[in-house]
Write a structure and sequence with these properties.
Layout (H helix, E strand, L loop, with lengths): L2 H19 L7 H15 L7 H25 L7 E3 L2 H10 L2 E7 L4 H16 L4 E6 L4 H6 L7 E6 L2 E7 L13 H10 L36
Parallel strand pairs: 1-3, 2-3
Antiparallel strand pairs: 2-4, 4-5
Protein name: Phosducin domain-containing protein
Family: Belongs to the phosducin family.
Keywords: Coiled coil
Amino acid sequence: MDNRQKQAVEEYLRQKVRETQHGGAVDDEGSEEDLDLMLEELEKDYDESLAKYREQRLEELKKEFGKIDRAAAERGSELGNVSFVSAEKELMDLVMKSEVCMVHFYQPEFSRCELMNERLAVLAEKHVDVGIFAIQASQAPFLVTKLKIKVLPVVVAYKNGKEVARLVGFEGLSTNGTDFSVEALELWMFRERVISKRSLTFASKPGTVRSSNNNTNSDDDDDDDWY
């Protein structure tokens, strides 16, 4: 997406977050007018030679808006936030209902876990189509045992209820073992196919995707979302 499209998506997301947090539509005529103006600008291109490109841009916008709408319907007032869960059954239900999500197993007294929650909170604001949940390990004894979690923090990524990636501690994110950037975590999400390249917000866009699960290069993948 170009910068104008990104601005439109950002504005649409801000509107949707405000709506969900207020339990419905909010009176924000200024923002709606700004979004309308951006969309009008995108549709002003009447050059036939660029008509196909214009349609492609509008379709991309519709796709992004659709993701936000689905996330809003699914997450409600939690849209754009990390959802802290206190019961295993509730967490399992959320994971099964989510197309793509991540679960952070943590303990509040661990400084590394708190840092992970802070970084996830930043990413949750931008990647609303990814459900980001957190549960204290002490409140999830069954899952901790089943998933053989021995070290915290642990972030497990799921697609359609199936685990697709796991991040243990700050492995691969940190050079000093005590801190890591939002960019590094977002890049991990991309490499593990939790998000697409076009969704990258903080990290620079690499030329290829290499997943630790299958060690394959994305150049062989036909899914455009990963380019």
